[in-house]
Amino acid sequence: MNFHFNLERRRLNDLTLAGRLTCTPILVSLSLFLASCANNVAQRASTGSDPSSERPIAAWLAPLDPTPRPFNGTQGSADYFELFIEGNSWPKAEAQIKVFKIYQQLIARGSEDSLRALFNYLRVHHVSLAIEFGAMTDTDNCGRGVEGFDGEALPNIARRIQSLGGNLVYLAMDEPLWYGKYYNGKNACHSSIDAISADVAKNIKSVRVVSPGIIVGDIEPVPQAQVPDWSSEILKWLTAYKAATGENLAFFHADVIWQQPWQPFVSSLAPNLRNAGIKLGVIINGTGDEAADQTWFTNTMEHCRQVKERFPQLDELIFQSWTTFPTRVLPESAPATMTNLVTQCLGAS
Fold first, then answer.
1. pTM flag (> 0.70)
2. d(CA 63, CA 40)
3. What is the pLDDT of residues 141-177, one digit of tens each?
4. 71 and 11 within one domain
5. Under 8 Å CB-to-CB from 172, ≥6 apart: which residues?
């Protein structure tokens, strides 16, 4: 009310002084200003790009360990275990890392001393432990030897982690929707979404006997040209998972197929995840066909640039490799190491 009174008083004063001035220009300017504000708010709501609400991105680190993997011939970073020796040179990168993710092969085949050192280092430095694991159950009929399966082994893996001093906080499921329903290779299952969700719910319940507080999320390939309605399939999977487990996924990590138009797909998926309270992360890696560390670094840094530029409101970045490159994780000051990638991508100083 005072606002309108002051405008009217100014109008009367102006008329008295000039005889012909009115407050119409003021009102027009005010209308234009309010319309501009409304338009900006609408744009920010649709793009998620309001700088006033920017927050730090939580970073995960998941280099490939040097455990032999005869099934695919990858070697992993030779200096992997040097990450867990006090005094080694990655303080800037480490300061950015919230979660360190490991693979099931490391737990199954790694030495007790190496694993104890890893778990102790993470505990002392307040970095949470995650594991990427196939959460579906293989049978004589299907799933045997297929990525995304082996969920029945989860409790034993969790027990080994616990017995060696580890605290397993996160479980990142290894693409159950893709490998459970759409994978077409040997021993493919082609299961329904409801069957997949019921299966992983059973295995999650089993692992929570050992690790009651474990936080569960999913990784899926994004986009997926082989499945035209892949976006709607992911949404059905999210719904089915909640129905089977009684909870939403905690996070969804996009395993981006960089050669495909991934940005529009992530843009369309992001609001649905946000509305469900599911954190969205993107895996930052190479294209998979690199033959040298420097090529891997160049490709991966470009992917980091694209992701940060297009999605500044992303919840998580996962610096990950499941290929031979990079061959080294340290030091963070050396070109084309994995910790150097973290510092360069996140601008650590």
1. yes
2. 41
3. 999 999 999 999 999 999 999 999 999 999 999 999 9
4. no
5. 101, 130, 131, 132, 133, 217, 218, 219, 251, 253
Range list of H helices, 258-346: 262-275, 293-310, 338-346
Looking up residue 80, the CATH number of its domain turns out to be 3.20.20.80
CA–CA gap between residue 1 and residue 334 (Å, rounded): 65
293-306 pLDDT tens trace: 999 999 999 999 99
Hunting for tokens 């994978």 — which residue is that?
A: 183
Residue 33 structural domain: 2-39
Q: Which residues are CB-neighbours of 15 under 8 A, at least 6 positions away?
A: 21, 22
Q: Is residue 79 part of a domain?
A: yes
Phi/psi of residue 210, each to 5°? -90, -45
- Tokens 């032999």 locate to 68
C-alpha torsion angle, residues 88, 92, 95, 96 (rounded to 10):
-130
Beta-strand pair 168-174/128-133: parallel
Tell me the pLDDT tens digit for each residue of 322-336: 999 999 999 999 999
- Do residues 94 and 121 touch, judged by C-beta distance below 8 A? no
Look at residue 80 and tell me if it is in a domain.
yes
Tokens representing 273? 């995840």
Contacts of 215 (CB under 8 A, 6+ apart): 169, 170, 171, 250, 251
